[in-house]
Amino acid sequence: MSFSVYKETSPPDGHIYKLMQLPKELLDYIKTSRNVLEFKSPALGRNHLVLCTESNTYTVRQMNHSNTQLLVEDLLEPRIGKSLLNTFGLSELESSNNLLVVGLCSYLYELTPTQGDIEIAGLQVYDGTEALLSVKTCKKFAELVNDSPIAARSFQKRWHQLCGSTVNDQAVILAPDFVCDALYALVSVTIAEELNVFTLDAMTTRMVRENRKFTPSVVETICGKFCDPDDNRLTLNQAAIAKWFGVATLRKLRGVSTDKDLLLQWKSSLPPFFNALLNLKSLRGHYYRPLLGAILHLDRAGLSTDIHGRIKEMFLLVKKWDYDEFLPYVDEFIPATKKADSVILKYAKKKRAGKSFFVCPR
């Protein structure tokens, strides 16, 4: 079967067509749901666009083609109208195999699932003292939700993981030391009252009684970050709690420490009678080793935001990294579809010594 293809010399001004490749689950969502489907982009970021359903987030990426694709419609479509048929010198009887070009596409948009993100740059850090908050620089929580490129149902969990909370409807990030104080109180209450499980409301009442600075919003953040939900009840996530106190101990080191000394300080920072497994492996991505057997805190937030710059900075600190201690600092740059080595080996060498692997400059 052959077709004749026609194109207007001047495309319509009111709209433009784009091609988007939809994953099956998103196509099913569109077919069966009348719920939210929206494009979002961070207020401060550039060249970052996501498509959000109620619970899933997809990164939108432009994929260029070597050939131009034509989007066409049958000229018999009622909405096209008889005027175009007359323009091309056709009658309705003649137009069954005639197509009208409605769009020329040299690229399409590819959608990749992502966890989404929350734009916390510029948010004030809250240490329990409301007087330190500046109204002029505060951002309302509702504005933050609207500006963040993340699905609505994923927002709250991610927000708690970032230690996000609210003070008088303003979005804030809880200061690390304040989180330590609130977490210490949470664990102490569960131990003192022998609570294996508890509800958020009950724990809020107890902690507000303990310290008025631990507002319901603060307690919700602490429980959201350090507790596991089970229906409407919560249990402590001991691994997450131990890791937080371990990172806090690393951050407070005044100089190089040994593994043994770090473990002793880490243990002493925990609430009394809180027995959790302490393992330095859980702190990977928060320290480096300037010398053999020595350990020192290294905050990823202070490193470059591109992989080449970050690896270069890391090698200025240490010329030889244990592979497992190196990987957490760069894993955010590694696409889910690629193996870590395929990215790392573009910027560094991987060597083997016995059963261990190391990363060093090229």
From TrEMBL:
Keywords: DNA replication. One of its GO terms (cellular component) is Ctf18 RFC-like complex. The keyword Transferase does not apply. It comes from the Eukaryota. The keyword Secreted does not apply. Signal peptide: none annotated. GO terms for biological process: DNA replication; maintenance of mitotic sister chromatid cohesion. PANTHER family: SISTER CHROMATID COHESION PROTEIN DCC1, SISTER CHROMATID COHESION PROTEIN DCC1-RELATED. Belongs to the DCC1 family. This is Sister chromatid cohesion protein DCC1. It comes from Metschnikowia bicuspidata.
